[in-house]
Amino acid sequence: MGEIRKKAAATLKRLSTRLAADTTKLVYQRHPDLEARYGAIGREKCHEDALYHLSFLIEAVSANSMVLFSDYVTWAQQVLESRQIAVQDLHHHLVILKEVVAQHLPIDQYVLVANHLNAAVQQLAEKNNLPVEEPAPLTPLAETYLELLLSGSRKKATDHILDQISAGVDIKQIYLDIFEPVQHRVGHLWQTNKISVAQEHFCTAVTQSVMSQLYPYIFGNERNGYRLIATCVSGDLHEVGIRMVSDFFEMEGWDTYYLGANVPVASLLQTVRQQKPDLLLLSATMTFHIQLVARMIAALRETEEFSYLKIMVGGRPFNVVPDLWKEIGADGYSQNAQEALAMALHLVTKKE
């Protein structure tokens, strides 16, 4: 962790000018009212603030201290409010700064830096009673499963799911009503600094383990004649979402070929050539994975023998920007497994 911390601080320092510029640009895109409120000099001050935030963030990361950056944000709030800058503006600025950092840092470095930003943003929101977007409520079964995960009860969490199967609950409902929303909630808890990265990884590992125990119930359904390859781009280690979607297709009779996380372009092309799927599913978890997805799609489009292939994408960046899939050359996009299946059938039957 010490080596990652050093690299993260060095990356932030090397890219600080660009990060500040991108943050300022996005702040004004998201909040166009700032121009009228603060005048022409406002954009310049916003850029200066971004550089200042980054300088303190770099020091906090280098010192491995959450308190340092949170204390700085408290001080910054006092300074800005004394100059008639609303605390909401500081909150928006820091949230967007984290988003920009996600576009430029490798995932291991980003996770470490995001922990510092999450802690400061959460403290700022709580101290000032700022509205926080709350996730959708969980069903009682999902709530119980989440509580067992957060308490570290691997066996009880597993037994809870297996008990539902024994009671006749449909596996698709397990995926849609328990696994998918609980994974989103776990991510939200980390984002708001309620749980650690280690806890997030534990919850994900348990869910993946439980999913593997359900495979005897998933595989063996009547086949529908369609073949699917599902994968994450190189550098993306968040595979549980695309794995859920792949399993959902398997339950619907597709022959699935799940490649997992961190797949290079050359390996993907070779696998597509060998497996000849009707559909390719590509997942991108973070904003900085978008260009990798675009390059994968471009490589496939440039090869004549893959002209028949339909390509779908999914993941948080595509949920945030609904038309992004069109910009990178995909044939479709979906927010969840159920939507993915409907869109996939539309694409492959249309192709015929």
Question: Which short descriptors sum up this protein?
Answer:
352 residues; alpha/beta; five-stranded parallel beta sheet
Describe the structure.
This protein is α/β, with parallel strands linked by helices. It has helices at about 1-30, 35-40, 40-65, 65-80, 85-105, 105-125, 140-150, 155-165, 170-190, 195-215, 215-220, 240-250, 265-275, 290-300, 315-320, 325, 335-350, and strands at about 225-235, 255-265, 280-285, 310-315, 330-335. A 5-stranded parallel β-sheet has the order 2-1-3-4-5, with helices on both faces. α12 (about 240-250) links the parallel β1 (about 225-235) and β2 (about 255-265). The longest helix is centred in the N-terminal third of the chain and has 29 residues, at about 1-30. It is globular, with a radius of gyration of 22 Å. The termini are far apart. The mean pLDDT is about 85.
Brief summary:
With 352 residues, the chain is an alpha/beta fold. It has helices at 2-30, 33-38, 40-63, 66-81, 87-104, 107-127, 140-150, 154-166, 171-191, 197-213, 215-218, 240-251, 265-275, 290-301, 316-320, 324-327, 337-351; strands at 227-233, 255-263, 279-283, 310-314, 332-333. Helix 12 (240-251) links the parallel strand 1 (227-233) and strand 2 (255-263).
Layout: helices, strands, pairs:
Elements: H1 2-30, H2 33-38, H3 40-63, H4 66-81, H5 87-104, H6 107-127, H7 140-150, H8 154-166, H9 171-191, H10 197-213, H11 215-218, E1 227-233, H12 240-251, E2 255-263, H13 265-275, E3 279-283, H14 290-301, E4 310-314, H15 316-320, H16 324-327, E5 332-333, H17 337-351
Parallel strand pairs: 1-2, 1-3, 3-4, 4-5
Helix pairs in contact: 1-3, 1-5, 1-6, 3-4, 4-6, 5-6, 7-8, 7-9, 8-10, 9-10, 9-12, 12-17
